[in-house]
Amino acid sequence: MHAFRKAVEDRDEAALTALLAEDVVFTSPVAFKPYPGKAITAAILRGVLRVFEDFTYIREIANPDGRDHALVFTATVAGRQIQGCDFLHFDDDGRIDEFTVMVRPLSAAQALSEAMGAQFDRIAREAAAH
C-alpha cells in the first residue's frame, strides 16, 4: 500500500502534510484555478477529510518508475455517492508535487463543490496559519 493511501485511510493529517512538496500544485475537481503551495493543499485535504464520508480507495495504479500514481476511490458527500481518482506525481525527493482530483457523477461533484465551499473560510484560515 502506498504511503499516501495509508495516510488518507488512517486519517493521519501530519503524515499527509509530510508527503507534500513545498511547491505542490493541487488541481481541484470543482475549481478552475489550481492551488499552489503546501499550506493551502494540506488545508484543502483536511477539508476533504471532513466532508467525505465512507471514503474507500478501491484501486491503486502506479507506473513502473513509481513517480505517478492513480488512486481510485468511492465516498459519500451530502448523501450523494461519489467516485473519483487522485492523480499524484512525485518529485525527485519522493514528495507529491502535482495532485489532481477528478470526480463523477456531476450531481456528486456539485455536492462536493457546495460542501467544500462551506469549508473554504476555514481552509483559508488554516493555510494562512501555516
Sheet/helix structural class: alpha+beta
Total strands: the figure is: 6
Shape: globular
Strand content: 35-45%
Helix content: 25-40%
**Terminus-to-terminus distance:** 29 Å
- How would you name the oligomeric state of the polypeptide chains in this document? single chain
Strands of the largest sheet, in order across it? 2-1-6-5-4-3
Number of helices, counting only DSSP H or I runs of 4 residues or more = 4
Low-confidence stretches: none
Taking the sheet with the most strands, its summary is:
6 strands, mixed
**Gyration radius, rounded:** 14 Å
The chain-level mean pLDDT equals 92
Overview of the molecule:
The protein is of the alpha+beta class and 130 residues long. It has helices spanning 3-9, 13-18, 38-51, 106-129, and strands at 20-27, 35-36, 53-62, 68-77, 80-90, 96-104. Helix 3 crosses helix 4.
Structure, briefly:
By secondary structure, the chain is an alpha+beta fold.
Keywords:
alpha+beta, single chain, 130 residues, six-stranded mixed β-sheet
List the helices and strands and how they pair.
Blueprint: H1 3-9, H2 13-18, E1 20-27, E2 35-36, H3 38-51, E3 53-62, E4 68-77, E5 80-90, E6 96-104, H4 106-129
Parallel strand pairs: 1-6
Antiparallel strand pairs: 1-2, 3-4, 4-5, 5-6
